[in-house]
Design goal:
single chain; alpha/beta; Rossmann fold; GMP Synthetase, Chain A, domain 3; 7-stranded mixed β-sheet; 16 helices; globular
């Protein structure tokens, strides 16, 4: 096969070697504010914020952060849902010269504590939700956190007093007292917006964001994403969607449903950064609810919706979906987990909009592959490499050598979007690089003659649950804390809704009474994130082991496959 066989599958006018604009990430918002000044940038619970106003709010956030001590080298955590607070704080931190650390509200408290201390986060931004603020309030006394900046969901809506009263009556929010270490988000913004600009230096070296990703050996590690990594990824997506011939997306004319959580790399880049670069109106949803999403698509004439397979499944199964008009949709994409073909076909028939797949990962910001909207439909493929990206395939048995295109191998990727390394773990990055500098992804795949990639396996022990990476080691360690458990092995099994679901195989201690699935879930609820919770439990007298006595998963995977095939 020829070098870069995927180039022939690019849409007309698209170039692999197209110049990719990179620079300070805050420049994306600043340029958009000049270009689309009075166009709406954010739409949240009835309130529209223009590009000019959003940039001004980010300036005020920058000035407020600098009063709190934020500057070069200072790490600020964002523990936020999809509200304007996130966008304002994100760009405010960058303008102030700081580094953003993203935190998932789905994480267990022990994981949050590790990330705070490992990332050296001194300031955390959150909101007054009962599901969020109390966790950070506790962690502020148990970690290096020095200050909390706390927003109100209601303050970003069109009717703050009414929303505040409704949320309080529903028990959704908690009260907090402002103090030297607890600052209201409104107080952070209470200034004239003048802040000290710090020279960024080389965008390739300037750390922009720490994006934590799990590991098969236990604790998660922070992928260091530079300003150049994230702006390059944005430019790669721009090239794939706004080509000169029949562009898919039109600058300043799109309305994107932003329902994916912003702490996830897919949403961070594809929704927020790319969206602002293209001047879209981001319709923010703090959480995914199928009914609300369907209604907004119909009422607000949404044109773009990035999602994960579970969202499309939920929409298809919602009883009211066939009574709404989804014809405004022109571009729907999915990533984070394989898209079942039946779901893809059903959604396309329902909406009239083609649903395309892509592949990427935290370490690639997450640019990797895309499926051309007007290209062929190839069942099971996650598409072709984006401009500026090179992909090779390493021999799984001998990663020091590459296999030919068309043969199965571990995906190895190189491009301006790929992280330079992991925070305080240089050895972890070295272990994942080939001799010629390609990043080994852990995904086993093959490429057809048109450059389309088909992922078939994983070398890393990871489960994809609803678009989130779930690591069996973390679940196993939590289950081992149960006083009756002697041994445990966790694998991923197919799940119609989540893509995959964790299944725990447990051997109890001699003489122990059986533990039910519900009892185990109850035990784990404060030890695992919601996305990590087991979906199945099977008690066994013995668990399979290797010849040297290590617990083995391959026999369990084989049994599950046989069970599904009716063998």
């Amino acid at each position: 096969m020829t070098a870069r066989p995927w180039i022939k599958s690019y849409p007309a006018g698209m170039r692999w070697d197209a110049p990719l604009e990179t620079g300070p990430l805050q420049g994306v918002l600043e340029q958009a504010a000049r270009k689309f000044a009075d166009k709406p940038a954010l739409n949240f619970m009835g309130r529209r914020i223009s590009y000019r106003e959003l940039d001004a709010l980010a300036d005020r956030a920058a000035a407020g952060f600098q009063k709190l001590g934020v500057g070069p080298g200072v790490h600020v955590g964002l523990f936020l849902p999809n509200t304007p607070h996130y966008v304002i704080a994100f760009f405010g931190v960058l303008k102030a010269g700081g580094v953003v650390v993203n935190y998932s509200p789905l994480d267990a408290e022990t994981v949050l504590q590790h990330k705070i201390d490992d990332s050296e986060t001194d300031i955390m931004v959150t909101v007054d939700l009962g599901l969020l603020y109390p966790q950070m309030d506790r962690l502020a006394g148990a970690t290096r956190l020095k200050k909390l900046v706390v927003g109100e969901i209601a303050e970003m809506t069109s009717m703050p007093d009414l929303v505040r009263a409704q949320m309080k009556a529903a028990g959704m929010t908690v009260a907090f007292e402002p103090s030297e270490s607890r600052v209201r988000f409104a107080t952070l913004l209470d200034n004239d917006g003048h802040y000290q600009r710090h020279p960024l230096g080389d965008p390739e070296d300037a750390l922009c964001c720490l994006q934590y990703t799990g590991g098969t050996t236990g604790l998660s590690k922070g992928a260091m994403l530079s300003h150049a990594n994230l702006t390059a990824a944005c430019s790669q997506f721009v090239e794939s969607a706004t080509g000169p011939d029949e562009p898919v997306l039109i600058e300043g004319a799109e309305r994107t449903l932003a329902v994916l959580p912003p702490f996830h790399i897919f949403a961070l880049t594809v929704n927020m950064i790319l969206g602002l670069r293209l001047g879209v109106e981001l319709v923010l949803h703090a959480k995914f609810e199928a009914a609300a999403v369907i209604k907004d698509i119909a009422d607000k004439k949404i044109t773009v919706m990035p999602g994960v397979p579970t969202m499309y499944v939920a929409m298809l199964h919602h009883p009211g979906v066939r009574h709404e008009d989804l014809a405004s949709l022109k571009y729907c994409s999915t990533g984070g987990a394989p898209m079942p073909l039946a779901v893809q076909k059903a959604f396309q028939e329902l909406s009239g909009c083609r649903l395309v797949e892509g592949w990427g990962m935290t370490e690639t910001s997450p640019a990797g592959t895309f499926t051309p909207l007007r290209g062929p439909v190839k069942q099971g493929s996650c598409g072709i490499p984006l401009p500026g990206i090179d992909i090779k395939f390493a021999d799984v048995a001998d990663p020091t050598r590459y296999v030919a295109y068309g043969e199965r191998g571990e995906i190895c990727i190189k491009g301006p979007n790929v992280t330079k390394g992991y925070w305080k773990r240089p050895e972890a990055m070295a272990e994942n690089l080939t001799a010629d500098g390609y990043f080994r992804t852990g995904d086993v795949a093959w490429m057809d003659e048109d450059g389309y990639i088909y992922i078939v396996d994983r070398t890393k022990d990871m489960i994809l649950c609803g678009g989130f990476n779930v690591y069996p080691r973390n679940i196993e360690e939590a289950i081992y804390k149960h006083p009756l458990v002697e041994e445990v092995t966790v694998i991923g099994v197919p799940d119609e809704y989540r893509g995959q679901s964790p299944k725990a195989f447990v051997k109890l201690k001699a003489g122990a009474a059986p533990v039910s699935f519900e009892e185990m879930k109850d035990f784990l609820k404060d030890k695992l994130g919601k996305h990590e919770m087991i979906g199945h439990l099977e008690l066994r007298a013995e668990l399979p082991k290797t010849p040297v006595g290590k617990l083995s998963k391959k026999e369990l995977y084989a049994e599950e496959e046989q069970r599904r095939s009716g063998g």
